[in-house]
Structure formats: C-alpha cells, structure tokens
Automatic annotation (TrEMBL), chains A, B:
Protein name: UDP-glucuronosyltransferase
Pfam families, per database record: UDPGT
Major localization listed first in the record, in broad terms: membrane
Signal sequence extent: 1-31
Key words, A-Z: Glycosyltransferase, Membrane, Signal, Transferase, Transmembrane, Transmembrane helix
PROSITE patterns assigned: UDPGT
Entries under PANTHER family matching the protein: EG:EG0003.4 PROTEIN-RELATED, UDP-GLUCURONOSYLTRANSFERASE
Source organism: Ataeniobius toweri
InterPro entries the record matches: UDP-glycosyltransferase, UDP_glucos_trans, UDP_glycos_trans_CS
Gene3D superfamilies reported for this sequence: Glycogen Phosphorylase B
Enzymatic reactions: glucuronate acceptor + UDP-alpha-D-glucuronate = acceptor beta-D-glucuronoside + UDP + H(+)
Length: 534, 534
C-alpha cells in the first residue's frame, strides 16, 4: 500500500485516490463529534487544513474561539463555533511587535549570556501569558451552562494545539480522548516531557544549538535544560494552581494532563528536526499542509512571467508580525531595487521610499502556489515551520530573517543542512542583505541541498496528512490509545531517574566495603597482637 | 492512502491491491542487489518471507549460509546461496536441548537470585558462542577469493538478522548500507544500544519484569542492566578483539558497527511490547509474517471438523527444541487424553504411552492456517515471537510453556494483558497442566483480551510487511539513511550521560559556594576583630 507519494503517474494516482476515497469513506468513523481548541495566528492555518479533511470525511466539528479572534471565523461551512473567553480577549497583536523589539535589543549580547539572560527577562512575559490563559480557562470551567452543553454533546475527541493550555485543561476536565496537533509546548519541545531528551545530543528549544555539541555547548544546553525545568515547575505550573485546586483531583497539573494525551501529532520531519528519541504515541506529520501548487491568479502569473530568465524572489514574514521597523524595511527595499530579479513582498504598513520598480507589495500572497512556481528562485522568510516545510516540499532555497519564538532554532536546523542562509534583523544593512540574497540566488549549494531534503521528505510510506487523519480516527475508533502510553509518566521524578535505586545500591556497596575493611582490620589487629605476643 | 487493512471489502481490496502492485512495480528499485546474512532456525522463517516479497519485486538476492544449515536450503528459486563457515558448523541442535535442561534446573531458585545467577552461569556459554561466531567471521574475512567476489558484486544493501554477528561485521567491512531484521541482539534488546532505555520503566531482557515496577523490581532491573553492560563490554566485545584489530580501523567494535545500521526493522508491536522510547531509524514491523489462513489439507480439515462443538487444541514448541523431557511429554499426553477437545501436537520423538485417541501427533503443522481455523480454541506454545504474533493476529488465546531465551519475557508481556496463561515446564504435572488448559479453554477472559489485542494490532496505517519493504527499498533508493541516525552514537559514554558537564557544573557551584563562605568568614573575622578592637 506504500508508495512514493509524488512520483506516481497522474492517471494511476487519480484512480487510486478515488478508490482510497471510497475505501476510507466505508471505514471512517463518520458522524464522530470532535471538539477543537485551536491556537490563533499561523497555528490556525494548519489546524484548519486538518479540519477541512476531517469535515470531508463526515465528522462533526465544534471549534472554540475568542469573540475577538484574529484569524478564526465564527461562521464556517466546516464547523460550528462557540465563542469563549480566550487569550486574544486580553492580548492583541501589538504585543508581538513589542516582544520583537525586546528580542532584537537583547540579541546583541554574546551568545551564551544573551540567550540565558533573555529567557530570564522573558520570564515575566511567560508567567503573565500563562496567568492570562489560566484566567480564561477558569472563566470557561465556571460557566455552568457552557460546561453542561459541552458535556451533553458527548464529544468523541478533543483535538487541540497545546501551545496554549485551554485545550489540555478542557480535554482533561471533560475526560475526552485527546490528540495534540503540536510543534512546541509550554517551555519548548513537547518532547522534553513526552520522551527522554538526553541533553548531550538533544538541543533544548531556544538554545540555538545543534545536535553535535562540544563540551561548552553541552554545558550551555544543560543550563538551558535546568532553566526550562525551573520555568515549568516554578513559573508556569503555579499560574494554574488555583484552577487545578478548584476543578481537578490533587496532584494534577499541566504536565500530567498533557502527558495523558493519546496521540501527539508532531509537525516535524527528520529531514528538518535532528534525530532524537521519540515515543510510540508520537507521530511525525511535518509538512502535512503542503500540496502541489495551483495555478496563480492571472495578474500574479503575468508578473512571474515578466521576470524572464532571472526569476522571482518571494518574501513573507508570517502572520503575526506584520510590520518590521522602518529602517529595516527601507534597507530591504533598497537591496531589492538592485536585483535583476522581480520581487513579491507580503507587506503591511507604509510603502518604503526606496522601493524599486521590480518589487510588488501585496497584503496577502498564495504562498504554497508561489513556492511551487517554476520562476521562484529564493524564499525570504522569518523561519516559521509552515513556510519552511513549504520551502522543503517545493525545494526552494531560503534566506532566513528570524524574529521570535522557535524561528532561530528552525532556521539553524536548515542552516546545518546547507539549505538556508540566515541574516540577523538587528545588524541588517542594505549591503549585507543584498550580498546574502545574491549568495542564495547564485550559489547552487543551497538549491542542491534543499532539493535533497525535498526528495527525502517526499519519500514517505504515506503522505503526512493521511498519517494525521489515520491516527485521529484511530483514537476515535479505539476510544483512546492507552496501550501506547509510557509507564514512566506515573513515576515520581526521583524514581523515573532511578535516584532512589542508585542511593540504595550505592549504600549497599558502601556498607559492604566498610564491613570488609572492618573485618580485615580486626583480623590484621589480631594477627598483629598475636605476632607481638609471640 | 491509509486504511484498516483487514476490514476492507473484498472487491475494493483486490482492485486496490492490483493498482498498488502496478504502482509499486513502477517505483521499486528493482534490479538492486541485496546481500542477506540470516540466522538459522525460527529466525529464518520470517526472514524468508521478506526475501520472497523482495524477490517478487525484482531484487537479486544472495544468501550466505552454512553448508550444514538446519533450515536454509542451498537451492532456491528466490535467491542464490553461498556456503560460508558459520555457527552451525560448530554447534548443533543438541546444544539447545542441553541448554534447556540447564535453564530448567536453575529456575527452581527464588526469582531474584535465580535469574541473576543464571546469567552468570550462562556467561561462559555466551562467551563461547561469540568466540565461535568470531572464528567463522574471521575465516570469511580471510578468504581473499570470497571477499573479492563479494566486493566485485557491488551489493546495494546488507539485510541481516543481528542476533548473530556475522552480518553486522560483513556489512561494516564491505561498507554497505545496512538494514536489520531484528528481535533481540547481543545481550538483549537492540534498544539498549539504539535508543535510551530508562531502567525505571524499560525492563531489561531476561529480567522477566514488566513496565510497572516497584522499588525492588527497579533495583533488580538496574542490576540486570549493569550486568548486561558488563557482559557486552567484558565478555562479548573481547571475543572479537583480534578480528577487529586485524580488519577494522581502531575504535571499531561490535556495538559501533551495529549502531551504523541505517534502519532497524523491529519485529515488535506495542500491543505486545511495553511502550518505550524509540529512535527515528527504528521501524516496528511486528507480525509482518501473519496472513489470512489458507484452507487446510483434506485430512487435517476432516480432523478439525471431527472435533464438533468442542473445537481443537493446537500445540507446537517451535523449531529448535524438538524434544521435551519424557516425563513432561507423558504428563501432557495424559492431560490431553482427558479433554473433550481434539488435539494436534507437533511432536518429534518417541510416542508417549499415555497418548489419548483424541490427540494427533504430527512432525510439522501449518501453524498460521491452523490458528486461523474457526475450530481452534487454544494454542499451546513455547512463546517464541513468531507464534505469539500469529496468535495475536488470529485472536487465539495461548497457554505458554516457556523454555529458553526471550520466551519467558514474551509470555510475560501477554500475561500482563490477560491474553495468556503460563505454566512452568519444571513443575509441570498432569493435573496442573490439565487445570491450566481447561482454564484457558473455558474462561472467556483470555479470548476477550487477545481479541482486543488482535483488533488493535490489525488497526495500522499500513500492513507491517509493506512497511518493512518500504524501508528496505528506502535505504536502497537513498543509499542509506544517515539523516535518521542519532548524533549521540558518536559521543564517548561519559559525554553521552553528561557526566563531564555535571562534574564541571558541580565543581563551579562548589567553588562559588566555597568562595562565598570564605568571603563571609573574612568579613565576619574582620568585623569580629573590629568589634574586639572597639
């Protein structure tokens, strides 16, 4: 049943798709009721694609959203929505622009101190975020009418993105089988909690380290790890203590609820992520949102064709940070003006004065279709995973301009593989940016490497979207997946790390050595006395 | 593309199979040259099934075998064979019968001491086995004509069962991409080397522990773990030291060569194995050899039907140990004689005097077809994985009579899930055996549980055989899978466990505490002196 999902001949694939469709329809658990708690922004983009697929397979979907949601519409043909108190009610997108300035300022310190210091400084931000999240979760659990409605619906599944905590809390409270659509969670990689992550070769998120570390880098990673544990247990968990005390049985916290998830759909693929331990209930679905390019709108297609042999540079900085500081956009615009290529730039804000004739500013762009267009030469991106997987899928080299969150780590992963070049926003000038763009355009190294990644990424037993849907329906069919959950989760930390055993074994060894020494001395003494006596 | 591979309607499945076949043919890396180093006995049974599939997909297969092989024929329509010096030249099957007597004797000691002691006693056996294996590997590497022939063939892949070391050594020497078809390796689970195996919830093979351990059991597991490390580095590795010194670059040993395998096809499924950490290059294909039952030969079918409503008990003790001690076979035969069921017993040796009319002795039986027969009520087995996966696949409850190797551990896994009952050969009597058979026959608990396992085992994104073939061809297509290999493998053990980092971090903390105390004291002293002076 396995196949190279891209190389198949078109006729066969259409035929096969039709048959599989019929087959799947007959096997699906259609009519299942799925409760979805998404995260707004770019996370919604890929959740929506899964929901479309689930809807087409006959599932009934209910989405919880904020009345002030940025991207999640209240009316949809694929789901019913319920407005609930959420993060977006208290935070707005300016929040991220302020955070960006903070990060850029801090990135001028030497690496080691800078990153660690940055996390400390951000601490209050993280604590505040979790307090906001806890407040909105509390409001929902206290809303007796809403909770009765949710209970009475008898959902078959909670599908949530655990980057924000509401879905975890609500799924745990309603005791629903739970599937995570996850990239990172709480203090970083969900893996830190779900699978062992040896600090010697698994870089902690935010550390900007790769998997081959020297002694100093391993020390840095260890400090990051210790800090992340501190953050989880002393900053994040306390933000929820009132909530858990009121609504859950003693001993429950955000970590234990998260570990009760049946399946973790990780938006990762090992052409991108460093090889690392994983668990049987972790399924890798990185790049599930990628698909073949559709034809562009006529005007955009005409623009692409007008680039001639030089091709096109596509730039997009994602959904959250719409405005870079003006001195940076001016430098970028001036650099673009000197290129023989055409440029399409997803841009919101005041038009830069240095903008060249070759550059088209657009408020939104069909990113996947542009990246799959034969004229596209380079993708300039902030390094969010959605965009990077699309670049991998279509084999387009990337110039990375990381701004926030996991973007530094993401770009590092592709840089190690020679598939991207990275420029720092903080030190960006017209000249160094122009040099970097030209390098990625002209040096075949980047294209060769990303096309190798593309080939490996497409060489999977089945398309990642089908994998995702299979495991979601698996959990519905089997009412959970308890047999895939590690027994290690139920151990206290000192037992998990065998510290109790180690102490006792060492004590036994110590005692037996001590006793042997004592016996030897006694014997020696006696012999000594005897010898003296003789 | 995913589907429930058993529930599909027949028409669709035939159609789909045909299409997939066409598709796969067009994508396969047919014409690839595969070098296979199998392990004789039951391991060969499942390797052969993979080879048949690979042959049908157009690959050229060369099998290395002993001229005295027990099961591997020299002439085959699916492969070319080459006779080489192997384990079977020096050992014979009586070896296992002697080992069995030893194990049975030792199993009368209390659990903890017994198992540990047993391993110590077996030490010389394990060391001797590896010395035999090293001798035959050395003969092969020293055979210039054979080695030239193997090199000149330019194989695309080494496919081997690493339970014996020859395939690992030869694959490493010829620098071939390598795929393991593996259940256990060297001192136990291959996982002890390929993925982290926290001692707190991953039982070491041979420990007869499960994944939920109390303090004493975790201590026992730790001792087993420490002993297995000792065994690997002080008993097994030294057996090969001359060989590696002569033919490999310094620092190479059996462990490092094993870790260089591209893909590990593990004959495991998590309905059977306890959930545990795994790695991206580990693929679970447990039960790949299972298939729908074919109709039985006429005489056997007539025998099955003659059982009427009572049904049939099927008994087989595997390929290696053909003869149980006569007092045990007499007790079993006498117990069978009292059953209303019919019994089919795979039996080699002298016919027991107590044999009843309801019991049919056969030298060989079509095990998969019998287990899939509707009249089959219970499977009495030694607990090898081939038989257990067939029992899971067909949902037949098992009465286990473990004899050697991993059989005790295997049966424990299914006992924990309520799908088997276990009797000890050493304490077996007619009465307790009869009681146990009746229990498994009459108590619906066992059947219900194994049918739940069967349902979960069959609910996979694709059939495990297709998964196995996909990854074998993946390694051929991509000339290895280096990007799935952990960076942790290249670290020395003290770095892997971060001991170097821990020492330095603790030293730094210690020093800073010491300095602070010193400064405090100096200040106190001064203040004290000042106060005195005043």
């Amino acid at each position: 049943m396995h196949h190279h999902f891209t190389e198949m001949s078109n006729t066969v694939s259409v035929f096969l798709a039709l048959l599989c469709y019929l087959l799947l329809q007959s096997l699906s658990c259609s009519g299942s009721k799925i409760l979805v708690v998404p995260v707004d922004g770019s996370h919604w983009i890929n959740m929506k694609i899964i929901l479309e697929e689930l809807h087409s397979r006959g599932h009934e979907i209910t989405v919880l959203r904020s009345a002030k949601s940025w991207y999640i519409p209240s009316n949809s043909s694929i789901y019913t929505s319920i407005n609930v108190p959420m993060f977006e009610d208290e935070a707005n997108r300016d929040f991220y622009i302020k955070m960006l300035q903070g990060v850029m300022d801090r990135r001028s310190y030497p690496t080691f101190i800078r990153t660690f210091y940055q996390q400390h400084l951000l601490t209050s931000v993280i604590g505040d975020c979790h307090k906001m999240l806890a407040r909105s979760a509390a409001k929902i659990l206290d809303d007796a009418v809403l909770m009765k409605k949710l209970k009475d619906t008898k959902f078959d599944l909670m599908l949530t993105d655990p980057a924000f905590s509401l879905g975890i809390i609500l799924g745990g409270y309603l005791k629903l089988p739970m599937v995570f659509n996850v990239r990172w969670i709480n203090n970083g990689e969900g893996h830190q909690t779900v699978a062992p992550s040896p600090v010697s070769y698994v870089p902690v998120s935010g550390s900007e380290l790769h998997d081959q570390m020297n002694f100093l880098e391993r020390t840095k990673n260890m400090l990051h790890y210790l800090y992340s544990v501190y953050e989880q247990y002393f900053i994040i968990n306390p933000a929820y203590s009132d909530l858990f005390q009121k609504h859950f049985s003693p001993g429950t916290d955000l970590v234990s609820l998260g570990l009760s998830a049946d399946i973790w759909l990780f938006r990762e693929d090992f052409v991108f992520e460093f090889p690392r331990p994983t668990m049987p209930n972790v399924v890798y679905v990185g790049g599930f949102q990628c698909k073949k390019a559709h034809p562009l709108p006529d005007d955009l297609e005409a623009f692409m064709q007008s680039s001639g042999q030089h091709g096109v540079v596509v730039m997009s900085m994602g959904t959250l940070v719409s405005a870079l500081p003006p001195e940076i956009t001016e430098a970028i615009a001036a650099a673009f003006a000197q290129l023989p290529q055409k440029v399409i730039w997803r841009f919101v804000g005041d038009k830069p004065s240095s903008l060249g004739n070759n550059t088209l500013l657009v408020k939104w762009l069909p990113q996947n279709d542009l990246l799959g267009h034969p004229k596209t030469r380079v993708f300039i991106a902030h390094g969010g995973t959605n965009g990077l997987y699309e670049a991998i899928y279509h084999g387009v080299p990337v110039l990375g301009l990381p701004l926030l969150f996991d973007q530094f780590d993401n770009l590092l992963r592709m840089k190690v593989r020679g598939a991207v070049r990275v420029v720092e926003a903080r030190s960006l000038t017209k000249d160094n940016f122009l040099e970097a763009v030209k390098d990625v355009l002209e040096n075949p190294f980047y294209r060769k490497n990303i096309q190798r990644l593309s080939q490996l990424h497409r060489d999977q037993p089945m398309p990642p979207m089908d994998t995702a849907i299979f495991w979601i329906e698996y959990v519905i069919r089997n009412k959970g997946a308890a047999h895939l959950q590690s027994a290690g989760f139920s151990l206290p930390w000192y037992s998990y790390f065998c510290l109790d055993v180690a102490v006792v074994v060492l004590a036994l060894i110590g005692t037996s050595i001590w006793v042997s020494v004592l016996v030897c001395r006694l014997l020696c003494c006696r012999n000594g006395k005897k010898m003296k006596a003789e």
